[in-house]
Amino acid sequence: MVGISVSTASYDGGMATHFYTAASVDGFIATDDHSLEWLFAQDFDQQGPMAYPGFIEGIGALVMGASTYEWLRGNQETWEYAQPTWVFTHRALPAPEDADVRFVKGDPTEVFDDIVASAGGKDVWVVGGGDLAGQFAEAGLLDQLWVQFAPVTLGSGKPLFTRALQLDLIDVARNRDFVCTRYRVRTGS
Ligand SMILES: NC(=O)c1ccc[n+]([C@@H]2O[C@H](COP(=O)([O-])OP(=O)(O)OC[C@H]3O[C@@H](n4cnc5c(N)ncnc54)[C@H](OP(=O)(O)O)[C@@H]3O)[C@@H](O)[C@H]2O)c1
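Above: query sequence and NAP SMILES. Below: predicted holo structure tokens.
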């Protein structure tokens, strides 16, 4: 399989919410001190299965927690997302200039309609972390989980997920040494 389709994402043919992330085989998305060096040391074919360029084409809005936002601010020279980005935080964090970054807190259901509206008919990407994705899933707001498993274990770190979910495997592929998986989140799980 080459490439992906995000336009068929939801059950009813409408927009969908995806948690798309890379993880270690033992289920962490960052080390305890938020390092991603273990991930960037790996080779991933950006034209291959479940690669980022094809995924981001279908995304109209991003959602992330404060740690992920702070990591991006600290590790990217410029803010690279044109889409509205919703950052969940209890703190007053600085926003990048000329970027559509919106700070919110609390129950995702209270802002979900606004998030969807900001996506302009496209899908929503929950970037991370795992607990925020879990909050969306618990509220019934997460449609799909995409995980690219890197050939590494970390032993401890920031979790891929913090909730119990029932999933249906809808796609699996190899991309270099990554195992790329895509699951549908079962309703009511
Ligand atoms: N491997 C990958 O592809 C990948 C993908 C995404 C992220 N990451 C990395 O994974 C790590 C994730 O960090 P993390 O586990 O700490 O998760 P996170 O979701 O990025 O940040 C958690 C923080 O977000 C805020 N938050 C979460 N839910 C909230 C809510 N409902 N209302 C208000 N604030 C809320 C809280 O911060 P405050 O209360 O302090 O504001 C909380 O401590 C980061 O280092 C990130 O860079 C890796």
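The chain has five helices and ten strands.
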